[in-house]
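Sequence, please.
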C-alpha cells in the first residue's frame, strides 16, 4: 500500500511555510558559491593520475540514486543495491567487490563512515544518513598511495565535504512512480557572528517490487560555522532514522519457471531498521606558513537487519532467516599540522603530520536465528571494544620547477577486545602495521603531467575474528603509472595503469559467524577519465575501467575472485539552454562478473540510461528525471550459491540469485527558492 500522499504533501507544504517564516525573520542575503569541479586544473596539485573532485553542481546532474549514488561520481565506481533502500550500497571498484566498503575508505568532513567490526560486514559504509543537497564536493583518491588515509583504503578513498550554507533557502517536494515521495529543505541564517544551516529530508518509497518496500527515511541536519580563510570552526549535527522491508536477490530458476516475477520475493519478512546520530567539530588555523587543524566526533549507531538468502536449506521447518544486530558508540579525534614553504637541501618542501585516534565501544554485536523477525536462538552475541591509533607523515618536495616528489609513512595500530554476552571471559588481540607511500610527479608543460606512484595500505579484520586467531591487519601493495592532459577550462583527461596485491583476504563472515580465509590476491587494470566542455552549452564526461583480479596461490582452475566487475563504462552529457534550462543524459555499463572461483558461472552484464530535464523560472526550479529510460531488466547484482525452496532436495539447488535493477520510472521535483 502506498503511504497517504495527501498527508505527506500536507506535511511537506507545512514545512515549506515554516521555511518561509524563517526566511521572513532575520533574513540574510548570501553570496554565490564559487563553482569548482572536474573542469578545474589539478596540475601542480595532484599527486597521482587517480585523484580528483566533483563539485556540487555536477553532483546534482550525476543522476545517481540516493546518498550512496554520490560515490558513483568517483570514476570507475559502481554502486548497486540488493536488499532495500535502507541498507548500505554494494560497491565495485578496481577489481574489487567491495561488499559494503571493506577496501574503500569513506569520510564526511573528516568523520569516518566505514564501521569496523560491523554486525553485517567489515568496513560497512552506509551513506543514507547524508542529505545529498547538503554535500558540496566529493574528493577521491584511488589506490593506496596517500599517507593521510589508513584503514580500508587499499582500493582508494572518498571524502565528502558538507556545505556551510546554501546560496538561497529552499523547500522541495518530489513525487515519483511506485509510491516515491520526498521532501527536502535547506535554510541558512546568521547566528552568533557565524553562519548556520538547517536541513531536513523526509522520504517514503514502496519501490516497484511485488512486496512493498515501505521505506520510511528521516534525516535532520544542522551546521554552525564561523571564521574566514585564516581561521575557521564548524560544528555539525546529523540525525538519521529509517526502516524498510527488503526484497533480496531471488533464484533465477523461479523466475524462469514463471513462479516469480523479476520483482518477486521469497521471504516477506526480511528488511531492517537503522538509526545514526552524530556530532562533529572541525577547526583550522593558518598562521604564517603553518596550518593547524583538528577534527573531533561522536556517533551513536543502532542497526537490526533481517536476511534470508538460502530460504529452507539449513532448516527445513523454520527456514534460514537470521538477524544481525549492531549497537555502538564511536568517538574519534584527529590533530594535524602542515608546514608550508620550508627548506630542505636548498629545495622548497611542505611537511604534513597527523595523529588520529578512534574508539568503537560496541554494546552488542549479535547474530540470531529468526523466523518472521522473531528470535529463535542466539548464534553469537558479543560486546566488544576496538581502538585504532595512527601517526602519519608526508613531505612534498619541489626538486625543480617541473619535478616534485611526495613521500610519506604511516603507522597504524588496532587493538580489540571481545566479551561474549553471558559467556566466556574477554579475549584480546591487536597488531600494528607500517605503510610507506611515494609519488613522483613531472609537469612536462601546461598540458601534460606524468605520475609514478607506489604505496602500501591495509584493512583491519573483524575483532571477533582477530581474537579467534585471524590476522588482525591484511596488508596490500600497489603501484601506478599515470598521465593527466588538460586544456584549461575545456578538457581534463587522465590515464592510469595500476596493479594491487593483497597479502591476505581474511574476513569475518557475518552471515555465518565464522572466519573465512580467501587467500592472497593480485589485481591490475587501466582507468581512463575524460571531462570535456565542448562549448559554452555542452559538456561531456567519460570514465572507462578494465581490471583483472585473481587469487595468487589458488589451486589450478580456482583463481577467479567471485563478484568482481572487470569492465565498467560511464558516459554523460549535459546541454544547457541559456541559463534557465538544461538536459542531462547518462549511460552506465558494467560487465558480467565471475560468480565462482572456477569462472564457470558468470552473471549477465548490466546497462542503463537515465535522462533528466531541469528548468528555472524566477524563484521556482523543477526537474523531471526518467531513470532506466529503456526499461532494462538487467541484474543490479548477482550471486551463485545453493538454496532450497519447499519441495526441493535437502541438499538444495546451486543457482544464480539476482536482484534486477528498478524498471523505468519518472520522478518530478518542484523547488521553491526564498
Amino acid at each position: 500500500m502506498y503511504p497517504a500522499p495527501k498527508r505527506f504533501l500536507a506535511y511537506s507544504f507545512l514545512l515549506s511555510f515554516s521555511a518561509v517564516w524563517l526566511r521572513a525573520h532575520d533574513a540574510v542575503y548570501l553570496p554565490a558559491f564559487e563553482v569548482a569541479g572536474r573542469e578545474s586544473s589539478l596540475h601542480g596539485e595532484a599527486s597521482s593520475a587517480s585523484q580528483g573532485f566533483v563539485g556540487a553542481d555536477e553532483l546534482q546532474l550525476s543522476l545517481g540514486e540516493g546518498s550512496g549514488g554520490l560515490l558513483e561520481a568517483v570514476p570507475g565506481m559502481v554502486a548497486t543495491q540488493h536488499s532495500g533502500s535502507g541498507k548500505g550500497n554494494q560497491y565495485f571498484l578496481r577489481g574489487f567487490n567491495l561488499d559494503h566498503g571493506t577496501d574503500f575508505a569513506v569520510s564526511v568532513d573528516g568523520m569516518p563512515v566505514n564501521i569496523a567490526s560491523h554486525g553485517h560486514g567489515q568496513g560497512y559504509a552506509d551513506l543514507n544518513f547524508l542529505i545529498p543537497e547538503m554535500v558540496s564536493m566529493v574528493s577521491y583518491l584511488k589506490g593506496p598511495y596517500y599517507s593521510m588515509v589508513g584503514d580500508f583504503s587499499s582500493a582508494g578513498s572518498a571524502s565528502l565535504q558538507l556545505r556551510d550554507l546554501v546560496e538561497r533557502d529552499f523547500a522541495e517536494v518530489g513525487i515519483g512512480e511506485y509510491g516515491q515521495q520526498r521532501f527536502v529543505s535547506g535554510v541558512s541564517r546568521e547566528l552568533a557572528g557565524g553562519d548556520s544551516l538547517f536541513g531536513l529530508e523526509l522520504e517514503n518509497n514502496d519501490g516497484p517490487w511485488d512486496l512493498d518496500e515501505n521505506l520510511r527515511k528521516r534525516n535532520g541536519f544542522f551546521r554552525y560555522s564561523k571564521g574566514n580563510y585564516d581561521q575557521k570552526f564548524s560544528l555539525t549535527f546529523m540525525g538519521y532514522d529509517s526502516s524498510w522491508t527488503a526484497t533480496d536477490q531471488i533464484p533465477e530458476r523461479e523466475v524462469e519457471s514463471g513462479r516469480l516475477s523479476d520483482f518477486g520475493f521469497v521471504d516477506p519478512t526480511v528488511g531492517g531498521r537503522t538509526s545514526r546520530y552524530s556530532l562533529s567539530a572541525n577547526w583550522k588555523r593558518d598562521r604564517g606558513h603553518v596550518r593547524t587543524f583538528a577534527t573531533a566526533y561522536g556517533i551513536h549507531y543502532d542497526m537490526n537487519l533481517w536476511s534470508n538468502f538460502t530460504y529452507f536449506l539449513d532448516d527445513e521447518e523454520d527456514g534460514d532467516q537470521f538477524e544481525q544486530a549492531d549497537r555502538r558508540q564511536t568517538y574519534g579525534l584527529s590533530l594535524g599540522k602542515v608546514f608550508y614553504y620550508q627548506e630542505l637541501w636548498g629545495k622548497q618542501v611542505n611537511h604534513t603530520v597527523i595523529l588520529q585516534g578512534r574508539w568503537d565501544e560496541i554494546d552488542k554485536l549479535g547474530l540470531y536465528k529468526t523466523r518472521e523477525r522473531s528470535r529463535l536462538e542466539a548464534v553469537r552475541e558479543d560486546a566488544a571494544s576496538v581502538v585504532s591509533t595512527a601517526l602519519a607523515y608526508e613531505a612534498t618536495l619541489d626538486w625543480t620547477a617541473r619535478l616534485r616528489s611526495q613521500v610519506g609513512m604511516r603507522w597504524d595500530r588496532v587493538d580489540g577486545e571481545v566479551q561474549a554476552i553471558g559467556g566466556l571471559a574477554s579475549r584480546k588481540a591487536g597488531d600494528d602495521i607500517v605503510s610507506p607511500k611515494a609519488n613522483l610527479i613531472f609537469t612536462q608543460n601546461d598540458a601534460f603531467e606524468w605520475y609514478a606512484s607506489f604505496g602500501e595500505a591495509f584493512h583491519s579484520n573483524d575483532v571477533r575474528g582477530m581474537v579467534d586467531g585471524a590476522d588482525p591487519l591484511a596488508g596490500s601493495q600497489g603501484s601506478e603509472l599515470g598521465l593527466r592532459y588538460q586544456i584549461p577550462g575545456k578538457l581534463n583527461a587522465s590515464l592510469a595503469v595500476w596493479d594491487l596485491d593483497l597479502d591476505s583476504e581474511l574476513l569475518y563472515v557475518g552471515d555465518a559467524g565464522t572466519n573465512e580465509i580467501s587467500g592472497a590476491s593480485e589485481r591490475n587494470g587501466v582507468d581512463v577519465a575524460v571531462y570535456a566542455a565542448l562549448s559554452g552549452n555542452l559538456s561531456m564526461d567519460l570514465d572507462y575501467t578494465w581490471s583483472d583480479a585473481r587469487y595468487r596461490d589458488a589451486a589450478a582452475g580456482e583463481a577467479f575472485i567471485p563478484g568482481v566487475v572487470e569492465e565498467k563504462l560511464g558516459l554523460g552529457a549535459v546541454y544547457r539552454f541559456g541559463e534557465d534550462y538544461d538536459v542531462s543524459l547518462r549511460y552506465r555499463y558494467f560487465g558480467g562478473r565471475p560468480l565462482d572461483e572456477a569462472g564457470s558461472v558468470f552473471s549477465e552484464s548490466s546497462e542503463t540510461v537515465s535522462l533528466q530535464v531541469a528548468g528555472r523560472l524566477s524563484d521556482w526550479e523543477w526537474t523531471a528525471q526518467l531513470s532506466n529510460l529503456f526499461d532494462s531488466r538487467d541484474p543490479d547484482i548477482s550471486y551463485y550459491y545453493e538454496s532450497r525452496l519447499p519441495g526441493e532436495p535437502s541438499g538444495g539447488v546451486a543457482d544464480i540469485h539476482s536482484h534486477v535493477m528498478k524498471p523505468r520510472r519518472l520522478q518530478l521535483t518542484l523547488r521553491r527558492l526564498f
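The CA atoms of residues 316 and 647 lie 10 Å apart.
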